[in-house]
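Action item from last week, closing it out:
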Amino acid sequence: MNDERIQALDPATKLSVVLCDCTAAAGALARAHLSGPTASHYLAQALAGVTLLGAETSQDEETVTLRLDCPGPLGGFLVEATAVGTLRGYTKQKILNDFDGLGAPKDAQVLGESGTFEIIRSVPGMILASGAVAVGSPVVGAPRRGDRPAAFIAQGLDAFFAQSLQRRVRTAVAAAAGDDGVPVYARGALVECPPDGDAAAFAAVAETFASGAVQKALATATVSARTLLKKLGLPQAEVRRTDPLSFACRCSAERAEAMLAAIPEAERAALPPQIDVTCHMCGRTWTVATRRTEEG
């Protein structure tokens, strides 16, 4: 798969599917933030998760934000997906020396045993909808995968749909980062059963998620959308929409200058003639003047 989000529908069961691959976008963002392997692993997972949520957008300028606050060393993350498929975000910590270079990180060690997910849909100047769910181990009523809790981010997404939206959804996200901190893959899958959908078919799909087969398929080097649909037991699902994805940020030199212009003049006078302003969402740094130059 290229960096894209695919939406499909199985006519027989009425189950809907969202698949995404945002590997290149995750790599560009991790490099911009100079993230280590552990932070990049969770940044890539988070981007895959918010990309799945981006299928919910319905307005041109709409943005979906996925935020996690957690007690573990990572501290959490905030990622965004826009209606046009651009992605950005950050983790609160970029380098975790106690975990980097030691193999695949464990959620309980890096994120902690609990956390709060917040999901917000918005357009400029207005919040359209929001919801928050607490996840962890144990959590009363939290979705479970077989005899074990769902992976932390997938658990949060499932819980959000179940508790905030009363919708039957199963999700999986898969990501990995190399020792250089660059994500090797960042992918996600979501299946929803609408009120008139085939409950038995959805139960079978849910079991596929529970077994770990979906997450394993997402981590396959040569994965394709059609292969994933077969793995889900929905080989006849029809692709209805494909959207390209990319890393992009709305920051600019003009926005940085406007931010400085809002600082009282007396405080700006104490600053050096130029300062570097770094965007926390994408890691890019802008060098801007702190005061206007007078023309002779």
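Closing note: The two ends are 58 Å apart (CA to CA).
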